[in-house]
Design brief:
This protein is of the alpha/beta class. The chain contains 14 helices and eleven strands. Helix 7 links the parallel strand 7 and strand 8. It is globular, with a radius of gyration of 21 Å. It binds glutamine. Keywords: ATP-binding, Ligase, Nucleotide-binding, Protein biosynthesis, Transferase.
């Protein structure tokens, strides 16, 4: 009731939730009360949660914030959502995002922009901007996001909250609407690393419905929360601290560095030489995968269908022309181009090779240190509409987040301070495959 009241008061000004269903929320809360009475509660039972509009949830409109799916009521529930429902979590609603998760500002949503709760003239980041905003504005204590190239960590940083992108394959993608399947990974967003650890405990696990889900033993992601940092080797990749990094963001990272040192961590200089190439590699590969994933939206089985057409081909093209927004169309065109006969070798294949080189760089570095400390974004949250006429400028701002998606590694963004104008700044901790527990522990020690 308390969260519903806060939503009723503040959501209109932020536009962070795009779908709410109060009756259903209350019904789920009552079911959670029963679990508690029957002593069947988990640590998450009765705790409200918000889901990014990318996760299918039976009976809820799951539109990925696209006109294309505006009429789509999911007939089934994503595994990760089901896992949290089984733990007794209560659905508050569905949050705003860039259309099909393509973007870094939440401005390409079919349902309008979301405002940054700290300063309404700034974006919350993206694409999981709605999920980050509801936590920052205290409209939800927990949320899910998805991270293909930074979409959990970057909005978490811009809204002053905590967000974890797990190792690729740790969390099932079944029922999460696909953008770039070899990158997409769901993750928890909350106030603290401790909350994220509790969420991941219920989210993670093998799922036979996702062919890239990893079969491994269940872990307790809270196990390292109180582990001391004495002797921890923290790598600082020199390519992440060069030109383009805002001085105030740099200063916040220096503060975190001091905290780590005070607790006995050792700092080592490392190099990730192919960092610059991660942006072109990511945008070629993610667009290629998007162009094939989005070919399913043809107006035949579900989604938007144009009303005016004279033959089947025209039905397809009119439905897609009307249903997709500009950024999505741009990605489909880039993706189709780089996969086309004659350009495949020059772009797609080259980008795959770069992907391997970026992943190899990380393996070299993660032999020299336990975790990597890095910025999340070059600046704090940009003002609304600042990237409107320059998509490439927006792509370049993903420089510190996309490389670990290319490698499939886990990363966490945690709050690190504020700029002089009062906008939050985050820092990023990156670890080796399956190092989530250690990342959460280090984050907890310095939060
Ligand atoms: N900004 C990146 C993109 O537009 C990342 C988005 C994401 O992680 N979903 O592709």
């Amino acid at each position: 009731q308390e969260y519903l009241a806060a939503i009723a008061q503040d959501n209109a000004g932020l536009n962070a939730f795009v779908t709410l269903d109060k009756d259903r929320t209350i019904a789920e809360a009552k079911a959670a009360d029963k679990l508690i009475q029957q002593c069947l509660a988990t640590p998450l039972t009765g705790v409200p949660i918000a889901y990014k509009d990318i996760f299918c949830q039976q009976g809820w409109r799951s539109a990925c914030c696209s006109k294309m799916l505006d009429n789509f009521i999911a007939p089934y529930t994503a595994t990760v959502v089901q896992n949290l429902l089984d733990a007794g979590m209560v659905t508050l609603g569905r949050t705003n995002m860039d259309e099909f998760a393509m973007g870094s500002t939440t401005e390409s949503s079919h349902y309008g922009i979301t405002r940054n709760p700290w300063q309404h003239e700034h974006v919350p980041g993206g694409s999981s901007g709605g999920s980050a905003a509801v936590i920052a504005a205290r409209l939800a204590p927990a949320a899910l996001g998805s991270d293909t190239g930074g979409s959990i960590r970057q909005p978490a940083s811009h809204c002053g909250i905590t967000g974890l992108k797990p190792t690729y394959g740790v969390v099932s993608r079944f029922g999460m609407i696909a953008y770039a399947s070899s990158f997409d990974q769901a993750g928890p967003m909350a106030q603290t690393a401790e909350d994220c650890a509790l969420l991941l405990n219920s989210m993670a696990g093998f799922d036979e419905n996702d062919s890239t889900s990893i079969e491994r033993d269940k872990e307790d992601y809270t196990r390292d929360l109180n582990r001391p940092l004495q002797g921890l080797k923290v790598g600082l990749p020199r390519e992440f601290f060069g030109e383009g990094l805002d001085t105030q963001v740099h200063a916040s990272i220096d503060n975190v560095l001091e905290l780590l040192k005070k607790q006995g961590a050792e700092i080592v200089d490392v190099t990730l030489p192919h960092t610059e190439l991660s942006i072109p590699a990511y945008y070629v590969l993610a667009s290629a995968e998007a162009s094939t994933n989005l070919s399913r939206y043809d107006g035949v089985r579900y989604g938007h269908r144009a009303t005016e057409f004279s033959n089947l081909d025209e039905m397809y093209s009119n439905s897609r022309a009307e249903g997709f927004g500009d950024e999505v169309k741009r990605r489909i065109m880039i993706g189709t181009y780089v996969l086309s006969h004659g350009y495949y070798d020059a772009y797609y294949l080259k980008a795959q090779k770069l992907r391997r080189m970026v992943a190899n760089d990380f393996q070299t570095v993660l032999h020299q240190c336990d975790i990597i400390l890095a910025p999340v974004a070059p600046t704090a949250a940009p003002a609304l509409a600042s990237h409107n006429n320059d998509p490439v400028q927006m792509y370049l701002s993903d420089i510190y987040t996309v490389s670990l998606n290319l490698a499939g590694l886990p990363g966490i963004a945690i709050p690190a301070g504020f700029t002089s104008s009062g906008l939050p700044v985050g820092v990023q901790l990156i670890g080796n495959y399956f190092a989530e527990s250690r990342l959460l522990g280090v984050a907890h020690q310095i939060q």
